[in-house]
Amino acid sequence: MSLYLASGAPTPLLIVWQREWGFPDSLVALAFAIYAFTFLAALLVGGSLSDFLGRKPVILVSLVVALGSIAMFMLAPSIEWVIAARAVQGLAVGVVTAAYTAALVELAKPGTRVGPVVAAAAPVGGLGLGALFGGIAVELFDQNADEVLFAVVAGLLVLGLVITVLAPETTTRVPGVLRSLIPQVVVPAEARSFFVRMLPILVAAWMTGSLFLGLAPTVVHGILHVDSGFIDGFTGSIHGLSVCIGSVVFGRVAVPYALRGGAAGLVVGVGVIVVGILTATIALVWIGGVIEALAFGAAFGAIFRGLAPLAPEHQRAGTFAAVYVAAYLALGIPAVVAGQLIAPLGLLTVIVGWTALIVVLAAVGLLIQLRRPRARAA
Question: Which of 69, 73, 291, 367 would bridge with 88, disulfide CB 3.0–4.6 Å?
Fold first, then answer.
């Protein structure tokens, strides 16, 4: 959670840096999205490392690299430094994500929901807390917000190091580590059908996350005309914190029903968000954000619960890496495209088009899940 908190913390600060350094909205989107792309590269190259080296060594190295990115943020004199720090941050989190997900599943008792639920809840919960802490720091400390915020984040990462050192190893080393560095996405045959069927829902959910965590401050200032660091951070945090709650609350719902409910909730929640944006009503944006994020949490947790028993132990981290490849493509690409389209088309047009695409994808995912029982019966 500390790694993801560090990743969410810069979201409200981007507007502060934009005022100070005077860079365009396209660089705001790039500073957010570069994290997703380096995360993806690290995941493709190192996502299966822990299957061969063990979970603990991979987690420890990633925490140290993340601390290096925090130092870069604290010393940043320009947006270029911030983008570079985000890139390093993405590398650290990309390598560790599949490792810690697999470790949590293996630490939990066999057959329980605890491991997959925590694995789904911790990343988005951390992102939400990071955005919220960032907004509070901007509101309370203004120009010194980045120094205070990143000092706290660094302390949490050090705590993560201590906990990791004390934690048990959950898997044995196996040969073939160099071969594992060849970029590949591992989806075992046993899990392939489930993976394909849940993909539209996964992409729709993470596109919504990109909207909240990438451009929330821009939307709050440019469309809703609210000028508050705390509101920036709170709006960005709604998504992550509600996803975390949804993952836990709906963790006992059967996987097929959680996926269907998640897809339907995405359609409804994003629809409410669109109404809030068109009417410039921030309360509706928040309500819609809670609805879609609870649905996201239900579906994302179900994805891990559905995949965990299908993937063999020494392909488990690679399988979870495949989930995050799809998720972070959905997180990064829309933000970059939106950033480039804002100038020619206008912010409102871009956001409405973005949300319409999310609704279509979620609806397609819902239809796929509804058709599955009939196909099985036939």
Answer: 69
Q: Does residue 118 sit within a domain? A: yes
| Furthest C-alpha separation in the chain | 64
What distances in angstroms separate CA 142 from CA 117, 131, 132, 172, 204, one per listed residue? 36, 15, 15, 48, 35
Structural domain including 84 reads 2-169+185-377
Angstrom distance (rounded) from CA 263 to CA 270: 11
Round to whole Å and give the CA distance between 315 and 248. Answer: 25
The CA–CA distances, whole Å, from 97 to 32, 40, 282, 358 equal: 18, 11, 33, 25
Q: Is residue 176 in some structural domain?
A: no
Residue 291 within a domain: yes
Task: Report how far residue 218's alpha carbon sits from residue 98's, in angstroms, rounded to the nearest whole number.
Answer: 31
Name the token pair of 364.
Answer: 């397609």
Q: pTM score, two decimals?
A: 0.74
Report pLDDT for 336.
Answer: 81
Q: What is the CATH number of the domain that holds 162?
A: 1.20.1250.20
Which parts of the chain fold into alpha helices (H)? 2-8, 10-21, 25-46, 49-53, 55-75, 79-107, 114-141, 145-166, 177-180, 189-222, 229-249, 255-278, 282-307, 313-345, 347-377
Binned at pLDDT 50, 70 and 90, residue 372 comes out as: low
Structurally, the chain folds into a number of domains equal to 1
Residue pointed to by tokens 């495949």: 322
**Statement: residue 375 has pLDDT above 50:** no
What pLDDT digit, counting tens, does each position of 215-249 carry? 777 777 777 777 777 787 788 788 888 888 888 88
The model's pLDDT over 157-169, given as tens digits with 9 standing for 90+, comes to 999 999 989 988 8
Q: Would 165 be classed as within a structural domain?
A: yes
Task: Give the type of residue at 91.
Answer: L
CA proximity to 259, closest of 346, 151, 367? 367
